[in-house]
Backbone:
């Protein structure tokens, strides 16, 4: 059976499935680069330039790609040999054309003089640039941010945008002192900065978020998925597009991730997650929905739910969560996620259990249960921690297949709950039933 592989480009676009031969042909036509990823046969995603991992997980493909197919980047052994006949002819010609040699040296002298002149001109230009650079620097940007506020800072950054982009290119965009200010400008503006790519704004960290989180990119995503809005909002269809994923983001996971990761290059209180959420909201607000027709009315309801969910996530990440979040009988899947995510106690969480029957909702409910147990293991032995809760937690995956967030504590809690269920089953040996089997009856 022919082995097939998928190629993932920029964490967003998928091509394939392709056979090994098709991938070799794609390499020749440069349809993807070494920064793109490959996966096949339930294996992990591996970046093409990670040779050892490629050889480990996909040896057949690695062999086809690296052995004589253009990815080895070797220069080979090229022998450079001079021709005796050519040498003799050049010597003879040099002797016969001494005049040309004299002209050559004269030309070289002239070229040297021009080079000296240009070098002096370059020094003068560099000095002029240095004097110009004194008119803008990060110290002035920080002073404006602290003293005069964000409006004055944004005017300053906009006025010097081309100089800042050039300075970042010279210093190394990821290491530039300007990067936090550029990102801050993008967060308050349209999610972009002239002369700076979306990849630089995102950074090199591996996070499950789109590469381009500009307002324009989000508006396009919302429009492309508009026909699926109402079904997703009601939990009738699980959409694996970025516009649906961001609505399912867990702000508590994001907060824990930010607490455990070095997010250098961002001003205090600002992150790529908040940038994406802010631009997603702005992009959605630009998508108009007519009030005529039943489908349009459903889209209006879905849009309102989307904005409500995004506003709540932004408030959580800004450490100012919306208080008094109320739920009604008309609420469903999306409101259920907010109910689960906002629950602070097991009692509050239990009230969310029946809001939606979606399989994904039940998994999110179980992950929140797991988090409570991870914080207080004594919950497992309490009456309010029902057998059906134990079963849900014991069989839960660490990975959220929609948001691509990972919850390592889920595995530890699962082991804890399973051990407790096993012990309880042994104690109730007279009936021959474990708590799990009793719950199933």
Residues:
């Amino acid at each position: 059976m022919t082995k097939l592989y998928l190629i993932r480009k920029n964490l967003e676009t998928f091509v394939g499935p392709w056979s090994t031969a098709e991938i070799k042909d794609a390499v020749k036509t440069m349809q993807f680069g070494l920064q793109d990823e490959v996966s096949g046969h339930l294996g992990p995603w591996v970046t093409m330039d990670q040779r050892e991992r490629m050889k480990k997980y996909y040896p057949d493909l690695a062999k086809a790609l690296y052995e004589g197919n253009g990815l080895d980047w070797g220069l080979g052994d090229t022998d450079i040999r001079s021709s005796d006949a050519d040498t003799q002819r050049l010597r003879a010609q040099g002797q016969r054309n001494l005049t040309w040699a004299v002209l050559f040296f004269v030309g070289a002298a002239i070229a040297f003089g021009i080079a000296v002149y240009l070098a002096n001109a370059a020094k003068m230009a560099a000095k002029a640039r240095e004097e110009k650079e004194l008119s803008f620097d990060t110290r002035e940007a920080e002073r404006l941010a602290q003293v005069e506020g964000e409006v004055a800072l944004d005017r300053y950054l906009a006025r010097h945008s081309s100089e800042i982009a050039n300075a970042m290119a010279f210093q190394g965009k990821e290491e530039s002192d300007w990067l936090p200010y550029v990102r801050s400008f993008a967060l308050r503006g349209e999610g972009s900065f002239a002369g700076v790519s979306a990849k630089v704004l995102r950074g090199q960290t591996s996070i499950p978020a789109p590469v381009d989180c500009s307002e324009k990119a989000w508006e396009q995503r919302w429009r492309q998925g508009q026909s699926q809005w109402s079904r997703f909002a009601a939990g009738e269809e699980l959409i694996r597009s970025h516009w649906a994923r961001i609505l399912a983001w867990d702000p508590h996971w994001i907060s824990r991730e930010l607490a455990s990761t070095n997010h250098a290059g961002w001003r205090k209180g600002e992150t790529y997650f908040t940038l994406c959420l802010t631009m997603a909201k702005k992009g959605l607000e630009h998508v108009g929905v007519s009030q005529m027709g039943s489908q349009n009315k459903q889209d209006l309801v879905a849009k309102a739910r989307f904005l409500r969910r995004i506003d709540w996530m932004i408030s959580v990440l800004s450490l100012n969560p919306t208080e008094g979040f109320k739920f009604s009988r008309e609420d469903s899947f999306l409101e259920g996620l907010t109910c689960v995510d906002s629950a602070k106690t097991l009692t509050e969480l239990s009230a969310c259990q029946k809001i939606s029957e979606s399989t994904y909702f039940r998994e999110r409910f179980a992950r929140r249960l797991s988090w409570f147990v991870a914080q207080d293991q004594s919950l497992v032995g309490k009456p309010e921690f029902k057998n059906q809760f134990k079963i849900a937690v014991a069989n839960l995956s660490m990975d959220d297949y929609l948001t691509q967030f990972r919850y390592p504590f889920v595995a530890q809690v699962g082991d804890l709950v399973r051990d407790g269920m096993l012990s309880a089953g042994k104690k109730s040996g007279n009936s021959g039933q474990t708590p799990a089997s009793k719950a199933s009856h």
